[in-house]
Specification:
about 110 residues
Length: about 110
């Protein structure tokens, strides 16, 4: 999020060196994608974890991570995570001066509305 309170969010999914992502929703703090993203998963699995990252696209500099959630591939294959579902995205701003940084890491509920 920039200093004007604007965000250009997108979702990136990372698994075994592969990455897929949604489109960027410009200047939106409550984006909706309603999009299927497909990643091939072979069995036996190459990696144990799949990670969903919420990112803020920056036109200047690097894209900023706003939060992430990871899942065990074995749990997904076993059907423990039904689709679609709501998930909490946890993480703190990278800027150590940000007032929310400590509370987001210590109180996960705070991160859900960031």
């Amino acid at each position: 999020m920039d200093k004007w309170g604007k965000c250009d969010p997108f979702v990136r999914i990372v698994y075994a060196g592969m990455t897929v992502r949604t489109n960027t929703v410009k200047e939106n703090l409550n984006p909706v994608w309603n999009k299927d993203l497909l990643l091939p998963i072979s069995i036996p699995t190459i990696s144990d974890i799949i990670t969903i990252q919420l990112m803020d696209e920056d036109s200047v500099g690097k894209n900023e991570a706003m939060g992430c959630q990871s899942f065990k591939i074995d749990d997904i294959i076993a059907g423990k995570h039904k689709s679609p579902q709501w998930i909490n995205i946890y993480g703190a701003p990278k800027d150590p001066r940000d007032a929310y940084k400590d509370s987001m890491n210590e109180i996960p509920e705070t991160a859900t509305w960031w």
